[in-house]
Amino acid sequence: xxxxxxxxxxxxxxxxxxxxxxxxxxxxxxxxxxxxxxxxxxxxxxxxxxxxxxxxxxxxxxxxxxxxxxxxxxxxxxxxxxxxxxxxxxxxxxxxxxxxxxxxxxxxxxxxxxxxxxxxxxxxxxxxxxxxxxxxxxxxxxxxxxxxxxxxxxxxxxxxxxxxxxxxxxxxxxxxxxxxxxxxxxxxxxxxxxxxxxxxxxxxxxxxxxxxxxxxxxxxxxxxxxxxxxxxxxxxxxxxxxxxxxxxxxxxxxxxxxxxxxxxxxxxxxxxxxxxxxxxxxxxxxxxxxxxxxxxxxxxxxxxxxxxxxxxxxxxxxxxxxxxxxxxxxxxxxxxxxxxxxxxxxxxxxxxxxxxxxxxxxxxxxxxxxxxxxxxxxxxxxxxxxxxxxxxxxxxxxxxxxxxxxxxxxxxxxxxxxxxxxxxxxxxxxxxxxxxxxxxxxxxxxxxxx
Length: 450
Description:
Elements: H1 9-42, H2 44-80, H3 84-119, H4 124-156, H5 161-183, H6 192-218, H7 225-230, H8 232-267, H9 269-282, H10 286-305, H11 309-336, H12 338-345, H13 349-353, H14 355-382, H15 386-408, H16 415-439
Helix pairs in contact: 1-2, 1-5, 1-10, 2-3, 2-4, 2-8, 2-9, 2-10, 3-4, 3-8, 4-6, 5-6, 8-9, 8-15, 9-14, 10-11, 10-14, 11-14, 14-16, 15-16
């Protein structure tokens, strides 16, 4: 019998796991900026159109990512307890589920996305570009869903460096595709917004093929696909217990982003464009907290499986310290250089003029968003997902969206009102999640602790 490959997560620790994930996230969050840059070469309206409906793409992707990471959390707990048979069976089960969800989400986005864009208060030019983009991009989300299955497998087995290579492939294929779409190449004519969307689809396929080759042929990992199908119900129940509530928060948050774009569009095209440029630029700051959060999630899940609660506590403190300091420094750099950054995308002096306060408010929002990500992912991977998801939904829909509307329109603060509401939202949710962690209820919610 061939020896079963072992996970190297605890062996590598936070730095060994997060370093390649940091590069991974740097590549991922550079892609929207690259897309925005090339779209701005088409027009500010094209960039605003894609930026306005990008949260819709994130909503679709959230279903897939959260489900896969919920499954990975359960698998990590089993593997932390040295139960590789049950861990690998769990991987197979959530892979089936994510595969089916990816097909459903991709088709739904392509068919229903244009209707959502039409219901927003977009100008005719922006709405036209949004329709063109959404008619294609659903395919990319579907392939991203297939790809996240393999990404979580590589993280579970402590091999995140291959995800980094995968994302570098994604980046360069997307970069070349964008250039061809906007400027043309040889006999290939420029194809504008649709071409940029197809570049994203092709790059997703290329990176998916790479991680498939690594998992099946380089690492030679084998999974009990047939047995997982037979035992699917029993295997997927603990995954669903985390995924169902955990899915609600990112979906609700991205719906919140759509609502903010909706309000910004009501205020005016100028405010919408400025918000899109500021928000998409600050997405890059998330790469530190997302990378640390993913590494922390894998480590904490395995520590919980081994019932090493003191090490779990110290790991969260270390992760919070690293991510808050790193994200804050990056946000400050972004704020200091806001003018040259905005000049990369537009020469419209009206947009650049309101960029100072837009970038300043975004800058002081980032540390609280980081706490949300790190503590939220830690709660989720231990099995304590319901409280943070339900409380976040209540805050977003009963407080944050009404506040955004009141500040932006009746109070006349426009874009600044939207950003102030976003700051208040991140602060309140961060405090609530940290309070929940301090209650220590997560200590009794792991699959190995029941």
